[in-house]
Known about the structure:
474 residues; mainly beta; 18-stranded antiparallel beta barrel
Amino acid sequence: MNNRVVERRWLFCPLGIGLFLALPAQADNSLGQKDNIFTGVNDRQAVELTIPPGLVEGSRLDGLVRNYYLQRDNHSALVRRDPTEWAQGFLLSFRSGFTDTPIGVGVDAHAFLGLKLDGGGGSGGAGLLPLDSNLKPGEEFSSAGAALKLRYRDTLVKAGDQLVENPLVASGTSRLFPQAYRGITLKNHGLQDLWVDGGFVESTRLRNQSGYSHLVTAYGARNKAGVLADRESPHLGWAGALYNGPWGVQITAYGGQLADIWNQYYLGISDAIPVSDTLVLKPYLHYFKTRDEGSSQLGQIDNDTYSAGLAATAYGQTVTLGLQKVDGRTPFDYLTQNDRIFLYLSNSQQFADFNGPGEKSWRVQYETPLTFVGAPTLQFIAAYTRGEADLTRVDPGSAGYGYIYNPDGKHAKHWERDLAVKYLVPSGPAKDLSLTLRWAAHREGDGYTAPGNTRGNSSADEYRLIVDYPISLF
Length: 474
């Protein structure tokens, strides 16, 4: 009975996502970007290793009703469209328990439907809805998928359509539905304080698509016209581990290969230091090493990216200071729509990642529950980030990144300001309904946006309004 209670508490949210703890071992900007409930994949899977056998007894069916409005007001002559979309989403997620056999067998399945409420007068492209050949948002889209799962002692294996969450590959969640991957993953908790993770994926269903597509990157998959080029990878494989050491120290290490594009390695170290009964300091350090691999479809990549920071929490309030440096002639790149919610970069924000070639940046963020106005479930977040990149370092002949080159971009400066308010209904018929308001303002200096870069990394204001209502059916 007690195990069942623990299971319910952790597995309440749709898609089996459990309680998300914004610890430094995870993406350190997650506090500022967490406007959804599709996080905590690893926490949920850890709990699945402990629930009692029972294919039916351990099953759950959850639903989510999500209403999402996103408007981007561009202020640059290089970007002539202002993407605006409003959509309604419905999602069902079924998770079975495991058979009472030496190797427990179960299945996870999901289905969703997205409906267009407004397409901004045809100005689509906000990422909520699929676009037709005229770049107008579709009226609706839907999808369904399933994964077979096997459990043996402290090991969980999943094969099929699933969510992934680690420093090298993660399911983008900051639109209507989460991004999914198709492949095989393995998690093991056999050793005390050690979490081992490995996997192989060969395709992804992007957040605004019904079907699956090949793996491409966020920056290198575009040419000078800003149009998707033939820069696909047939598969991605990875292996990694997270170790919880003494005195609150956490060490995370990963390595992976995006075939014919790059080898990428990650090392993260964090700690939680209680200074007093009311003050906790959380220092963290992230390092990424990326090198081209195989046929090098994006050209030469020799990139080292460092980010570090310190979060101080007292009386429920958190102040975070972050520093970041990109060393290389290419930006720090990642899988397309591997959302910045999961980017292990200190200074990645709602609009910009501050990950340009040679870029140095700093960030300050403040977060607090508004308990002093009698609303403990009302949360306020404010962040400001400023960076300076060197776009003259880019090889203009680079197959994947040449479009970023700007001869006037030696001191390409830009800044971003983010404000967010999130309210969670604590009780009553609408219990657990959440309302999130987000505003990001990004401004560029001279030389920041390259003449060939039409991706929209320019001066803009972006507004988001998200209403989530999770429903536990059984």
